[in-house]
Design brief:
The complex is a heterodimer. Chain A contains three helices and one strand. By secondary structure, chain A is mainly α. Chain A has one domain. By secondary structure, chain B is α+β, with helices and mostly antiparallel strands. Chain B has one domain. Chain B contains four helices and eight strands. In chain B, helix 1 packs parallel to helix 4 and helix 3 packs antiparallel against helix 4. The longest helix of chain B has 20 residues. Chain B is globular and about 55 Å long. The relative contact order of chain B is 0.15. Classes of the chains: A mainly alpha, B alpha+beta. Strand 1 of chain A pairs parallel with strand 1 of chain B, so a sheet runs across the interface.
Chain lengths: 68, 213
Amino acid sequence: METQLLELSRDQIVARIERGAKSRGVFLAAPELLQQYREGRLEDPAAVADLVALAALLPDDDPLFVRP
Amino acid sequence: MSVPEQDTYLGRIRELTRTYLAGGPDCFGAFADLVGLLLRLTVQLGTGGIVLVPGPRPRDRMIVYGAVGDEASLVPLTNGAFLRLHIVLFRERRGDDFRLKVEQAVYQYQLDALGSRWVFRYDYLRQPPDPHPASHLQIRGKLFEAEAGVYRGMLERTHFPTGRVSIEAVIRLLIEQFGVPANKPQDFWRRVLAESEAEFERIAYRPLSGPSR
């Protein structure tokens, strides 16, 4: 394979989601961002769709997916 | 570009296409290599345009990600602009075999690294959480007709339904319609994109333009 592999830990994934959201003007912690995205409550969900997708790399039982 | 060089690239593209279509464990790498090669031959500035991100989950799901910008997933373009590129892939069992599927794809053309000067965005989400079309186009522009009633009063928030849009189509759009310089001669990149896109069109899942209820 020629493409570089970029291994990300859970903490790095969460940090990327939160930094990316902040840089796009969405000031939410990762769990809130994911919840609002899933419930269709974000003003412009497409603007953060790529960040939300990072969470798909985590196991289904990750705390990020547990609703408060 | 010489004919043997062209044939070498075309052979490599066919090989990568066969590998990702086969759905084996190496399908993620083959797909990423194909996207990387298409970008290098056309609109990408320099090398190292994409990375493959496996994450800590069991390796049945990976993301092809633009390599520039920690959380921005950018591919630098030959005109100084950027393509935000993000493709979520997963392997799905089909009987005794597996198939590589796309769960989500984002292609956003933007003039700055931050993305505040984005121009257009194609999104595809296999299972969208909202009523917007699963495959859609957004354009950051101004509508001449103020009474048209666009979504939330802004053209950029309006989701125009599209068919599935391939990376090849986006590259072609950038070169042909937005004037992004290509790295190789036209007769070559057109042939490469056409051949690769034909395979995508053959297998691409096409969602409805919205929910049924």
